[in-house]
Write a sequence for this structure.
């Protein structure tokens, strides 16, 4: 009996002593942190995607509290989250146009013939380090899904029928992970546009027109027709490739009709009135051709 | 018999073209001379469209220390200077020349006589080797003059002529040894003189007994030259492995081979050095093998640099029907040819036809941790681990496990019973880690 009492007493005393030591240590080495950091962190989406350029949401919150918002922007939370953060910190920020990732290649299996077989380790980065790719286009999508692998939001998936990744604009948060992952620099963050309407050149081939066209049916050949028809100086042509500046584009869609190869894409527009448009125009449509799935 | 200490594999020998004498390949109507035929900075064309050039005329000037000049391999008119796809489909600045006749520059000794006396002194030799655009012909095409000008801290003690030719199928080095043994040895003595050393080893693998006998026959006449017979093992021809095999010293990690005192040059390079120094002939020709189990022609050629590969293939009766993959270089380290219209380079050593059965990759399965890759790695790395780290992009861990020491020999992928593409992932992580390490030591951007 005595032993039990003795044991309990010793342990209790030990516990008490250690608790006091722990308390003193905790007080002595307390890390002073701005409570605002916790507040800001709670307002962020918590995706830790790194889309803002910081290591994660906590790092973003720390930077925001210590250095002010400045150019910081959380693409995942978007304007709502940013407004909340700004309010919590008593700052004001301007709303940003929401963005979305866009693939600038339409070289599906139908449009771009495979000229060789690659059977090595199937990532785009490996292929790029070895050679130009399994088609004649040096610039086009390799379809091995490095972008799909890095997307934390499941917003980008390689379609086995076309061999090209497709962006789900509802899920895409414009964090930019895919843009960094693509070795061919095919993904670009562009403004989502009014009613999600967007016009862009779905090609990055900088070869001469004939070479580009031979490699891919829907390549931009740098003919300059779109450049001439654009009334807003939104289109530039550099190295046989047209580029539409989304900040200048007014969505008149004239260039889309003009493009001889159908390299310019329009998204989420209502169908054109048939009478107004010229009858036999090569209308660029998203590739939805039934293709036997390569295994 | 000597060999390197660590790792290595034994791929089938397959030297089926070894008895084919070196033939002269006809000169094509048009040659495409690339400005990137060496490791380092690309050369810049110094001729204009419409210019007449002669064989051996300088057409590309080097830019920077690690670079090499390029000479015309034919006589004719410069038709164009444009970007042309190389054998992996990458665009390279190329001088296109339409051939007219075969007029050589004056000063090039075209006679067959063997010049034995070395008239130039060490400095002049290095200068001549540089002017003649000699590069390492063992595969890496590293400018030879750079190797012959070691940093002042290094003290070279010997020259090693790399005659291992450990890659299966390739026989171009073997034929050079068989047909030009004395020239190779003179090349070795020239290299000795350039470096101020008095020992030259020629490392030959045991599977070439005739070449060993041929070389031994001549090396008695030249003091300091010794033929070392090596056990057959891949990658014996790797610079670091060969040094280990011949003089038993290891190149330190991140160190230069010359830190061991050895300067390694390929047989082909030794021959090119001989031609440059004794015959004043720039490097615009190379010896290459056309071979393959499925090919009915096994041949060795002297080709003019810039000859389209398709021209050579046609000359040898076209691509065999069963060929599924065409490789330039050996089957272990060579590159698959994507564009058969690409021209040959100084370092082109073969056109190798492989059948589908030989080349088809089997489906990858899980690592069973057998450790075969670690046993096979000649650099003492752990490929299974590097593969895992690479796939998880753990750059600091990769660096801690010496991924930068990988020589990309492919022994790991060759031995892996689970067919894991180890080299593919390691090569990629090596490139990424090297980039990070370079950025660390790079000077900070100007403020």
């Amino acid at each position: 009996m005595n032993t039990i009492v003795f044991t309990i007493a010793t342990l209790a005393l030990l516990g008490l002593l250690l608790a006091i030591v722990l308390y003193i240590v905790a007080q002595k080495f307390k890390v002073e942190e701005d409570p605002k950091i916790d507040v800001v962190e709670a307002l962020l989406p918590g995706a830790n995607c790194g889309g803002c350029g910081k290591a994660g949401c906590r790092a973003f919150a720390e930077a925001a509290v210590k250095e002010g918002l400045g150019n910081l922007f959380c693409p995942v939370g978007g304007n709502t989250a940013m407004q909340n953060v700004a309010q919590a910190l008593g700052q004001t920020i301007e709303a940003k146009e929401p963005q979305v990732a866009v693939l600038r290649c339409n070289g599906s299996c139908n449009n771009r013939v495979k000229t060789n077989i690659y059977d090595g380790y199937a990532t785009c980065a490996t292929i790029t380090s070895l050679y130009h790719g399994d088609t004649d286009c040096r610039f086009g999508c390799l379809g091995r899904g490095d972008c799909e692998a890095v997307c934390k939001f499941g917003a980008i998936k390689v379609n086995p029928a076309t061999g090209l990744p497709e962006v789900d604009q509802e899920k895409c948060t414009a964090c930019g992970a895919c843009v960094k992952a693509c070795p061919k620099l095919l993904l670009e963050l562009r403004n989502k546009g009014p009613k999600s309407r967007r016009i862009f050149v779905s090609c990055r081939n900088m070869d001469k027109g004939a070479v580009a066209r031979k490699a891919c049916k829907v390549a931009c050949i740098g003919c300059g027709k779109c450049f001439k028809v654009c009334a807003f100086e939104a289109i530039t042509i550099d190295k046989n490739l047209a580029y539409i500046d989304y900040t200048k584009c007014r969505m008149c869609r004239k260039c889309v009709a003009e493009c001889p190869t159908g390299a310019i894409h329009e998204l989420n527009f209502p169908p054109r009135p048939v009478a107004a448009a010229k009858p036999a125009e090569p209308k660029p449509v998203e590739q939805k051709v039934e293709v036997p799935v390569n295994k | 018999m000597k060999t390197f200490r660590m790792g290595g594999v034994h791929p089938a020998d397959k030297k089926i073209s070894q008895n084919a004498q070196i033939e002269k390949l006809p000169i094509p109507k048009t040659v495409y001379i690339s400005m990137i035929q060496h490791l380092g900075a690309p050369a810049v064309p110094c001729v204009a469209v419409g210019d007449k050039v002669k064989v051996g005329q300088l057409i590309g000037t080097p830019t920077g220390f690690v670079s090499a000049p390029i000479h015309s391999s034919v006589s004719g008119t410069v038709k164009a200077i444009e970007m042309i796809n190389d054998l992996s489909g990458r665009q390279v600045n190329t001088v296109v020349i339409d051939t007219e006749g075969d007029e050589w520059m004056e000063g090039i000794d075209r006679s067959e006589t063997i010049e034995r006396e070395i008239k130039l002194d060490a400095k002049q030799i290095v200068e001549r080797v540089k002017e003649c655009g000699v590069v390492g012909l063992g595969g890496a095409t590293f400018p030879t003059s750079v190797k012959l000008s070691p940093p002042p801290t290094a003290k070279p003690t010997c020259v090693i002529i790399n005659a291992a030719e450990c890659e299966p199928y390739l026989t171009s080095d073997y034929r050079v040894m068989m047909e030009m043994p004395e020239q190779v040895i003179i090349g070795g003595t020239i290299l000795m003189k350039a470096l101020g050393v008095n020992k030259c080893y020629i490392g030959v693998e045991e599977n070439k007994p005739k070449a060993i006998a041929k070389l031994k026959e001549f090396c008695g006449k030249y003091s300091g030259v010794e033929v070392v017979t090596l056990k057959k093992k891949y990658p014996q021809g790797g610079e670091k492995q060969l040094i280990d095999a011949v003089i038993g010293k290891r190149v330190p990690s991140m160190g230069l081979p010359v830190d061991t005192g050895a300067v390694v040059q390929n047989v082909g390079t030794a021959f090119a050095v001989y031609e440059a120094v004794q015959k004043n002939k720039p490097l615009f020709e190379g010896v290459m093998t056309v071979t393959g189990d499925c090919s009915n022609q096994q041949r060795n050629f002297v080709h003019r640099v810039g000859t389209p590969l398709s021209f050579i293939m046609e000359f040898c009766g076209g691509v065999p029907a069963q060929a599924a993959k065409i490789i330039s270089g050996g089957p272990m380290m060579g590159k698959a040819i994507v564009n058969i219209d690409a021209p040959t380079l100084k370092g082109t050593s073969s056109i190798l036809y492989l059948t589908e059965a030989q080349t088809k990759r089997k489906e990858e399965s899980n690592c069973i941790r057998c450790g075969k890759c670690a046993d096979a790695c000649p650099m003492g790395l752990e490929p299974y681990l590097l593969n895992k780290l690479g796939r998880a992009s753990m750059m600091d861990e990769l660096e801690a496990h010496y991924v930068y020491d990988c020589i990309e020999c492919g022994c790991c992928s060759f031995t892996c019973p689970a067919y894991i593409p180890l080299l593919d992932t390691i090569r990629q992580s090596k490139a990424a880690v090297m980039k990070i390490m370079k950025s660390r030591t790079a000077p900070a951007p100007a403020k």
